[in-house]
């Protein structure tokens, strides 16, 4: 059995073991109301679904008729089992804790805290003060692309994540308050006490930090302060579908995706997997019947939502995940369920198990590379799921050189001050304590920036290039304003113009020199034109907008 990292987090096996084993589970009381997302069967009417939910002991709080999902509360301890037995319902997924829940989600990356050693990747003179640290921006040639296309304000990019700190001077100029929405109210058992009455954080805030970092890579303004993004003139839209703690449950994610379709969002970035299952399996023998039904519900709900968004003009971009796994042949999952009850070991069948949204329909899957263009040790890969590769960071890249084991080998982007202060990286006076955190006050308002590493950092590079493609080749959206472009054409242009990158030689990439065990070894299958490490290649913003 391989010891695996949980999706989305670049962490050590030791730290994860503390989260995932040896922890008590408290049974739910019959009087405890639990929230669920229920997915109706194909062709089931709203009235029949509500009747079935009521018969199973649930009360419907809200509905999403576009995809047949229902937010439900129930105090019946066997509600999930009842829903699973109903002919009208596929299953129910809990969105409030039934037992133990770790306080830090495994679904998102944590800030890089390693000290800066030696030299980082060679910098370049660029307009914004910290752009010389953005090797990823240069790798995808976004700096060169600006001579042709900086992005159009009428192109919208949805950041489906933990929120977005619009007070950052690099994000404020491009942020749309009008279009932004919060679909994920705080859950006190994992997010802590609510900051506002009603537990719905206002748009333009981010108590997790992950979404703010993603947003900066996509579209930080090229305004002479802080950093700049891949598409510095496009409009950023907060689609808060993740909890402050980083969990992403089915109901808010589905609602965010269908809203994106209805609101005319052009591109949506998804740097997460839907909790509580790293892999959702249709009928894994290790799962109880109600757990099988829950996963079938997540699969169906996500497929419907992704299809809906795509059919309404949304280009969908997703991180492949950080389990250093070949998604063509996934191995044991020891991290699921990561919420509500203790995880257990499951053998994963590639044909019937899916990590979502990365393996969902119409999603452009993105792997991560370091500044040397080596596949990052944590990045998932595989010819069945990958679309393209992009910079995600790799601390121990450049083994044997002065650039080895350097935090600057990762991705620097915007981050909320209050999250940095809560972690101790910035003091009460607003001064960075960690050498991996930067403060820039050039604009008159101070912005804060930190390094993260993960496929979550690679995906927004690709999403930014997709936004440039819509800006360059899109046409006027007569119905909703701005620009629009068929997402299939956006995807084709992204693939056609990516920098074709051959597998390493030897094809079996060992990370032993970098200090990783044999379980991280990865075999790269396929030719230069398309392979398991790089897909169609590393995204190239300059070629994507017509550069030669």
Q: Quick one: overall form?
A: globular
Low-pLDDT residue intervals, each spanning 5 or more residues: 1-30, 98-102
Whole-number average pLDDT?
Answer: 90
Please give the order of strands in the largest beta sheet. 6-7-5-8-10-12-13
Helix content: 10-25%
* Biggest beta-sheet profile: 7 strands, parallel
Number of helices: 13
Write out key terms for the chains shown.
548 residues, alpha/beta, seven-stranded parallel beta sheet, four-stranded antiparallel beta sheet, 20 strands, globular, disordered N terminus
What's the short version?
This protein has 548 residues and is of the alpha/beta class. The chain is built from 13 helices and 20 strands. It has helices spanning 13-20, 46-55, 79-85, 135-139, 142-145, 188-191, 210-219, 250-263, 289-311, 417-423, 455-473, 487-497, 541-544, and strands at 34-40, 59-64, 69-74, 89-94, 156-161, 181-182, 235-240, 267-270, 280-281, 315-319, 353-354, 363-369, 386-391, 411-414, 437-440, 447-452, 475-476, 483-484, 508-509, 522-523.
